[in-house]
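Person: At home tonight, work slowly through the protein below, taking as long as you need, and write a paragraph about the fold.
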Amino acid sequence: MKVFEFRVRVGGTLMTGNFTDEQLVEQAVAGNPEAFGEIVKRWERKIFALCYGMLSREEDARDAVQETFISAYRNLSNFRGEAKVSSWLHRIAVNQCLTKQRQTKIRAESFPDDESETSETAFIASNGDSPSLTTEQSERLRLVRQAVAALPAELRQVVLMKEFEEMTFQEIADALDLPLSTVKSRLYTALKQLRLKLERTPLEIV
């Protein structure tokens, strides 16, 4: 993993250093606010993508992201390093999303039309393709997102982490506090269900 270079304030002076996420946590616990700010900067986009995938609404996802980092900051001293910082953050985010789903009774399969374009750009980078190809990609992504949203929560979160966040099986197991075999089984089941759903849904390009 690439380690970002940034400036931190130590003893009233700015110093340049390369720190891992775990070292940043140590800096933050020691009282350096810039260190936690760098953690947020590194992970807020991926945490947002995960929250949006689980909650389906941009406003709810942003709230969950905010609560995730607030909770992480309040519990920095409890981080023991048994798992990566990224796995720790993902676990907090998943719990925040599940709590928000219970509170607001959001139906996972609901995808507001006015937010679809924003969410699609979060998963597809512009590569200069022709408008027709871009339209086809957007339509395919819309169908995939709808199919993912229709999965049970325990399957959906695994798919989002593995296929969209590109986390390893071990990282997902750490984040969800599950046995590795359970994560693999859930992903296999989820992908099988997605394949069946997508095979029954024709791709229509206008």
